[in-house]
Specification:
single chain; 453 residues; alpha/beta; seven-stranded mixed sheet; 13 helices; globular
Length: 453
Amino acid sequence: MTPHVEPDPQAGAAVKAADRAHVFHSWSAQGLIDPLAVAGAEGSYFWDYDGNRYLDFTSGLVYTNIGYQHPKVVAAIQEQAGKLATFAPAFAVDVRSEAARLIAERTPGDLNKIFFTNGGAEAVENAVRMARLHTGRTKLLSAYRSYHGATSTAINLTGDPRRWASDTASAGVVHFWAPFLYRSPFYATTEAEESARALQHLEDTIAFEGPQTIAAIILETVPGTAGIMTPPPGYLAGVREICDKYGIVFILDEVMAGFGRTGRWFASEHFDVVPDLMTFAKGVNSGYVPLGGVAISEEIAATFDKRPYPGGLTYSGHPLACAAAVATIQVMEDEKVVEHAAHIGETVLGPGLRELAERHPSVGEVRGLGVFWALDLVRNKETREPLVPYNAAGEANAPMAAFAAEAKKNGLWPFVNMNRTHAVPACNVSEAEAKEGLAALDAALTVADRHTV
């Protein structure tokens, strides 16, 4: 694939100048960033105005699960715009109903009611509101290694440093340690030990916080930005049992892991666990139009049969977003995208990344499922010292910055967070594209290797 436009550096400079003059970027010191001006994208690639093409191993922000500009989804959005571009959420609209039906058919258990939002953070906000109203309790438990969104409650639920500046310590959130054997907080040496000790820690936390005060426990089924730590066998089932024991609502956050990313429609299928509430967004329509939501169990939905639910959004179930979701789910079915993601993970990405780990001293661990992988980069494989310190910035982050620059030089746009790089291409990435990405990672890791001891 080649760029669909001729290089035009002057146009690119104009785009960047307008951006710098008027766009306020998230998570950034505005004067220290230099955004790439993007001229176009298709499939697994995007390109700039200078004619440089990049294989996107970030899937945008891990949401273009069927790649960029899929013609069937683009056509569905265009058709819906011509038919009914928008309508208020209080009405029954065919495409909204169909999107809800298709999602509910794929969620586990009895999660048959869908509340639509504009994205993942709003989904989390509404899920915890439902849990609090359903239980009459206020406290929420979430893991330290987590990300749940940037809105008020969601950012307080988040475990990573992005929470710190907005943490009021009054949101009713208590954090706990979820399992992560490679950097175990429980001094475990096996997955069984890690699972058992993490569950005991969680139950101890509940005991000291007061079970009768806790409305919900929220977990990313497979944590995403925090490091793609696949939970050990038995852990999620154990959390389910603890929630049932104390009458606590169990929320699984599938915003990033859902819709084929792990090689299943939802990551919960790998663990045979059904939550009370499940949040989704991103891959539901490959991010073509903002959409998220909460899948709700029959018991919690029944709470609001005669009692109004005190929440809503102007654009809940927006017709264009729902049309994109319907088309995306149909594409995923027709093209067997979920099965393909599982195949790529089992036969190309997983083996390829593990082979890189054998050859590169900077790769401490490889973790993942489907097209959802992380390389934990270290200074020393024996001590597992991270390649850069936790939440490093500036000069302290230089080794990761150099790694990322080398990847881009080799035509790969990498996902980099702290001391990790994630391999999260589109779910329909081809075998050839996946191997191209592995080759670029191989070259970039030689730069990381220079910082090992």
